[in-house]
Design brief:
The chain has 305 residues and is mainly beta. The chain folds into two domains: 23-71 and 251-304, Immunoglobulin-like (Sandwich), CATH 2.60.40.10; 79-239, no CATH class. Helices cover 9% and strands 39% of the residues. It is elongated, with a radius of gyration of 29 Å. Mean pLDDT is 90; it is low at 9-20.
Length: 305
């Protein structure tokens, strides 16, 4: 036999042996539940046979549904609501406005804020007429969303010279909430967040500390010092970026039950809080440099009131 041919056969044998040696098998995983019908607030225990390198779980609830691992949820609406209150009787008129921008550059300086295009949507909301806290009701602002761009929300407070236009009113804005509604659930896109989602910026000769953000409230007040009460000023309470892609809420996320080097997972206890029928999905995975294999195991769980 030709020497080169012998070497060729040996090389082929080594390659075939190596491929067989390192071929990945499907991870071993079987899942059972101690019960498949439970009441809301009651826990179910899932037990595992086999030990995949990694194990993850989708409960089947909203934003935790395996059906939306590759498919995105379509965000079709965007509701804004807030509450407001002012002084016992309004004096200076039209001080407060509600505005939205899709071209603000995200640089929080008064020059950048004023350079952006802001759409005035004040007339879509009910504002307080006195010190009684007034809920604005929910208003869908999805028509202002631009694909691929975030929205920014602003509460603008203008004070004109107070001798000519009367005394400035104090305004308090609370309970700001932006959310999207689905058939049976809703998701928060932005809330007040103890004030961390808003900042106040002023234009003009503004007295320090009059307009600010605290843990519960965006507070607007005009100048109180006589020497500057006749100054024209603007205060802007600006939100962080609100990401409203009209076509995509993102993929649903799994809960990791076991990572690569963690010990074997014997069981997992989960509690469903609301009635419904859910598909509990477990993903077992094996990974190495030669590839990835996974198995999917599903159990239908019925939750009653």
């Amino acid at each position: 036999m030709n020497t080169y041919f012998k070497y060729y056969l040996i090389l082929i044998s080594v390659v075939l042996f190596s491929c067989e040696k390192y071929q990945l098998d499907n991870p071993a995983l079987e899942v059972t539940a101690d019960k498949t019908t439970i009441k809301a607030g009651e826990s179910v225990t899932f037990k595992f046979e086999g030990s995949p390198q990694m194990l993850s779980f989708y409960s089947g609830e909203f934003l935790k549904d395996y059906n939306y691992v590759t498919n995105s949820r379509e965000l079709k609406n965007c509701y804004l609501s807030f509450s407001s209150a002012t002084v016992a009787s309004i004096q200076q008129a039209d001080q407060l406005a509600v505005l939205v921008s899709s071209d603000f550059d995200g640089k929080y300086a008064i020059a950048n804020i004023k350079a952006a295009t802001w759409v005035d949507i004040t007339n879509r909301f009910a504002l307080a007429k006195n010190a009684t806290v007034t809920a604005s009701t929910e208003v869908d602002i999805m028509d202002l969303a631009v694909a691929g761009k975030p929205l920014y929300l602003a509460f603008r407070y203008i004070t004109k010279p107070q001798t000519e236009f009367l005394a400035a009113n104090d305004w308090n804005i609370t309970a700001v909430l932006v959310k999207s509604k689905f058939d049976d659930e809703e998701v928060t896109l932005m809330d007040y967040g103890s004030g961390s989602n808003f900042s106040v910026f002023s234009y003009g000769n503004k007295q320090a500390g009059r307009s600010l953000v605290n843990a519960t409230t965006i507070q607007f007040k005009g100048n109180a010092t006589a020497a500057i009460k006749e100054e024209y000023t603007e205060d802007w309470g600006i939100s962080r970026a609100i990401y409203i892609n009209p076509n995509d809420l993102g993929k649903d996320k799994a809960t990791a039950l076991k990572l690569f080097r963690e010990a074997k997972k014997e069981s997992y206890i989960y509690t469903y809080s609301e009635a419904g029928t859910y598909t509990a999905t477990f993903i077992g995975e094996t990974n190495n440099v030669y590839g990835n294999r996974k198995v999917v195991r599903q159990i239908e769980i019925t939750v009653t009131d």
